[in-house]
Structures are given as C-alpha cells and as structure tokens.
Write a structure and sequence with these properties.
The protein is of the alpha+beta class. 45% of the residues lie in helices and 22% in strands. Helix 6 links the parallel strand 5 and strand 6. It starts with a helix and ends with a helix.
Length: 509
C-alpha cells in the first residue's frame, strides 16, 4: 500500500511539474470547486429532518409538552405556524412515548402489537376500536385546513326484541379544530366521509362540529344531498348565474363584438324537499306459513271385580266398562310483509324562483341601420330562460353606455441570441472548462506510462548505433562519454563510487 501511495504521489508530482501556470490555476480551481461542492452535499445530508409530533390546543399544553420532551432529552423546535412542535425524525418514537407517559397523547395510539395474547375478548375489542378511532383521527387531521381532530364512537349491542331501534344504532361524533382560512362545511363533509368509512358507521349517524365554535354543526341528510346546506345552495345559485351569463355574453359578442355587457342573477326556491314514505301492499303478502298439530288421547276404564252380586245375578264372572276421548289441535303461524318498499316524492333540485338581467350596450349601436333594442332584449331573454309568467318586467333592465375601444396590447419581443449568450454563457463556459480539464488530465495520465515504456528502447538504439567512437570528433566523444556517465549514475548510484575508486587507483599508479 505504501509503495502504491509513493508511486501515485510521484506520478501526480510529475504531472504537476509539466503543467504551466494557467493549467495549474485551472486544476486548482476545479479541485477547490469539487471540495466545496462535496462539503456542501455532506453538510446538507447531515442536517436533521424534522416531523410534527404534537399540535397543542393551548399554551399550557405547549409548555407541558416542552417540559416533558426536555426531561426526555428530545430537542424541539416550533413549526412554521408556531402551533406545533417538531422533533428530529430519529427521536420521533422517543418523543411519542414521553408524551404518552406525560398524558398528552392517548394511550390508544400505541401499536396493536402491545396487546397480550392472554387478554380477554372485551379488552382486545376495546383496544381495536381505540386504534380504529386513532386511525380515523389521523386521516381527518391530514385534510387541508384541519389542525386537529377528535373522534368518539359507540356501537351498542342491538336488541333482538326491537327492530330498527335508533337508540341502539351506532353513532360517531367528530370534533374539528380548524385553521382560520378553512371552510367548515366543506371540511366537515370530508371528515364525516372518512369517519364513516373508517369506523364502519353510516354517514347519517356521524355528527361533525367545530371545537372552537360549537354552534357550527353538520350532519349528513340524504334528502337534501343535492343542496347539502346553505353554502352549497348559494354555490349552486352562483354557478347557474355564471353559466347563463356566459351563454348570453358569448351570443352577444358574436353579434356585436365588444359593444355589449350582460349580467344574469338567479334566485332559487329554498323551499324544496324530498319526502320518503313506506309503500304498503294492497293485499297481505305472506312471508312464512307454518302449522303445528297437537293430538291428545284421554281414556277412562272402569273395572268391576268378580263376585259382585249384580253381576253374578246376570251370570257374568267379570265385567269391564271403557270410555275413550281423542282431541286434535292445529295451530297455524303466518308472518306478513309489513311494507313492500319506499317511495320518495318531491323535487330533486330547487326550481328557479326569479331571474334578474342587466344589459348594457354601446350608444353607437343605435346609429347602425337595422338595430332594434327590443330584438336585442328578446334575444337575451331567450338565452337566459326568461319566463314572463314567473319573472317581473322590472327585473330586466337595460342601459346605454359609452364603450371605449381598447388598444391592442403590444407584444414585447423576446430575448435575442446576444441576451441568451450573456445569460447562459458563463455557466456553459464553466461546464466546458471542467470537461476540458478532465480530458486534459486523462490524456496526461495515459501519456506518462507510454513515455516511460518507450525510454528503454530508445536508449538501446542509441547504444547500438554508437559502434565506432574513434572516428568521431573529440568534443562529440566527450559529450557522449558524459551522457554515458550520467546514465550509469542514474541507473546505479553505486557506479559513481566505483568509478572514483578506479580513477584514484589509476592516479596513484
């Protein structure tokens, strides 16, 4: 390993010595950028990842949670809204255990694996229901606009003696704590749907209320599903008004482009409902018919013993009298169908109570030949669905105005090639420079072994070519001798000592 490091250091030093000043500056810049980038990546990867562990409902609960987590050795920071506590993801389990022990979280939120196999059925059922409610709370809390949620549910046992007993029907209540910007009706509908599917309770038996303002309550009503409440009713009115306004405006723009403006208002009838009633059969319908037969045999026997004087007078030694009574009883049990179905009657959607239309047209239209104001009004009425028997004439208003001609918006030219080159040139130049430096270093690393490998054959060829040195000039012979001495010393440093020893010996002689 040490030899490898020495060779690597020698190769890098050789490469660095062959570079000029500009190349050394480029290599140093690239190495510095790589080190800084790698350090930034390592720093970012080492940053903690925070998750929400608790959203306290009061300042007292916030202080208690901070104290409990501080005693457990878990550092905390507030979230963006300042209403929740964030902990490092690696400390999440420790933080939840500390909050459960401190009474800030329900113990039912523990894992079902904590249950013992020897627990009775009631305890296991209680823990399973608690875990199901906890899952429902987590699903509801994940909705947009929900700060926290609390779910309570009960499934009492049904009585076998009472059918359709509403008192024993499963019920659920969802308490929501919403953020200031959330709409209660929309969030309550989604929360009720999640609670119904998670707990297995009909949506009609789920009640949702706002914990911050208990006066706001929501319950699903299948008969008013189309309206669903005041917010949905008003949204339906706005949507119908926008649709009719868009249809009328499109038609007017085709006839007189840019010269008219129309607005339609729609008022729906809020007194609409759907009535459900049971349908009884015209004649009784038998669901089941059973018959029970009971037969009883009552017998009476009278026996007169022998030797009776009256019997003896008749010359009989024994007399016997027998009376037999048989009773047969039949019982028939029939069950009839109470109803054959359910009939719903009423309006599926609210009807239009009245329309209001406001029409504005340009004064220049009156100067055009063939223009008739009444025809324009009739066209608008036909498009929006005006009913003379329902709508009042005063609800349709028209007015003349001055429409200014809008100048066309000038389209600005996009950036040219010079601007693009100025914007993206430095970044592209840096990338190209890094690529060129990498290719340059790669070529140097490949060229170094080839030069070392080609050194020995060249030396051999020179030595082979020097056959007759006596014919060369004296200066050339001295130069060649000097090169041979330098090559011998470079290949074998001990050759210098031998040469000096032999030279001194020759001088003494």
């Amino acid at each position: 390993m040490r030899q490898f490091l020495n060779e690597l250091q020698k190769n890098l030093a050789g490469i660095w010595s062959r570079l000029d000043g500009g190349q050394r500056l480029i290599v140093a810049s690239v190495m510095l950028a790589a080190v800084v980038g790698l350090g930034g990546i390592l720093w970012f990867a080492g940053q903690p990842s925070y998750v929400t562990v608790l959203e306290p409902s009061s300042s007292e609960e916030m202080r208690t949670a901070k104290r409990v987590l501080s005693q457990a050795g878990v550092p905390t920071i507030p979230d963006e809204t300042g209403r929740g506590l964030l902990v490092d993801r690696t400390h999440y389990g420790l933080a939840r255990n500390a909050l459960i022990e401190g009474g800030l979280l329900d113990k039912s939120q523990r894992s079902l694996l904590d249950s013992s196999l020897v627990e009775d059925a009631d305890t296991k059922r209680f823990k399973l229901e608690a875990a199901t409610r906890a899952q429902a709370e987590m699903a509801i809390a994940a909705l947009a606009g929900v700060q926290s949620a609390t779910v309570t549910a009960s499934k009492p046992k049904r009585s076998v003696f009472r059918d359709r007993d509403r008192e024993t029907a499963p019920q659920a209540t969802v308490a929501l704590r919403l953020r200031p910007e959330a709409a209660f009706d929309a969030v309550a509908r989604s929360a009720a749907s999640l609670a119904s599917s998670q707990l297995g309770i009909p949506m009609t038996n789920v009640e949702v209320f706002d914990a911050q303002s208990p006066g706001q309550r929501w319950r699903y009503d299948p008969d008013r599903e189309a309206g669903g409440g005041s917010a949905e009713f008003l949204a339906l009115e706005r949507r119908l008004a926008q649709e009719r306004t868009a249809k009328a405006q499109d038609a007017l723009d085709m006839i007189h482009p840019g010269k008219t403006k129309v607005t339609v208002g729609v008022e729906l009838d809020p007194q609409w409902e759907i009535t459900s009633q049971k349908v009884l059969a015209e004649s009784p319908i038998v669901l089941s018919d059973s018959m029970t037969k009971d037969t009883s045999d009552n017998s009476e026997r009278d026996t007169t013993p022998a030797g009776d004087p009256s019997v003896a007078a008749q010359g009989s030694t024994e007399s016997q009298a027998r009376t037999s009574n048989t009773t047969k009883k039949e019982t028939r049990d029939r069950t009839y169908m109470a109803d054959i179905g359910e009939r719903k009657s009423g309006k599926l959607a609210p009807e239009v109570k009245r329309l209001s239309v406001a029409l504005i047209y340009d004064r220049a239209l009156e100067q055009q030949p063939g223009f008739d104001k009444q025809n324009l009004v009739n066209v608008v009425k036909s498009i929006v669905g005006w009913d003379a028997a329902r709508d009042q004439d005063t609800a349709f208003s028209s007015m003349v105005g001055e429409f200014s001609v809008e100048e066309p918006i000038a389209i600005e030219a996009g950036p040219g090639m010079g601007d693009l080159a100025k914007q993206w040139g430095p970044a592209i130049g840096q990338i190209v420079g890094v690529v060129l430096v990498i290719l340059f270093l790669k070529s140097l690393l490949k060229a170094q072994p080839s030069r070392e490998a080609s050194g020995e054959p060249a030396t051999a060829s020179v030595s082979v070519a020097a056959v007759d040195e006596t014919k060369l000039p004296v200066e050339e012979q001295q130069k060649r001798m000097r090169r041979e001495i330098e090559r011998a010393i470079a290949s074998d440093p001990a050759a210098l000592a031998k040469m000096m020893e032999s030279w001194l010996t020759e001088q003494k002689v």
